[in-house]
Design goal:
Layout: H1 4-16, H2 21-33, H3 35-58, H4 67-78
Bound molecules: zinc ion.
Zinc ion binds next to α1 and α3.
Protein name: Zf-HC2 domain-containing protein
Organism: Flammeovirga kamogawensis
């Protein structure tokens, strides 16, 4: 059986990209027997969904600098 550290790494990897069939089997087997990693898997998914929601909401925010602030930044860069 894989270690809890390995299981946590696979859970994070699965959320970020994808894992192989064998990795998936090892993870499923571990989570079946380990209550801590089962909880971590649920919490990790919730955190990931919350972050994705936050990022998608804040990507649409338009940020505009006033002409005064643009000129002030340009002045500072030229100093
Ligand atoms: Zn575990």
């Amino acid at each position: 059986m894989i270690s809890c550290n390995h299981a946590a790494m696979l859970i994070d990897k699965k959320e970020a990209t994808s894992i192989s069939f064998m990795e998936s089997l090892k993870l499923k087997f571990h989570v079946l027997l380990c209550a801590t990693c089962k909880k971590y898997k649920v919490m990790s998914k919730q955190i990931d969904q919350t972050l994705k929601k936050y990022v998608s909401q804040h990507n649409t925010v338009n940020v505009h600098l006033s002409e005064e602030k643009k000129e002030a930044i340009i002045r500072k860069l030229n100093e």
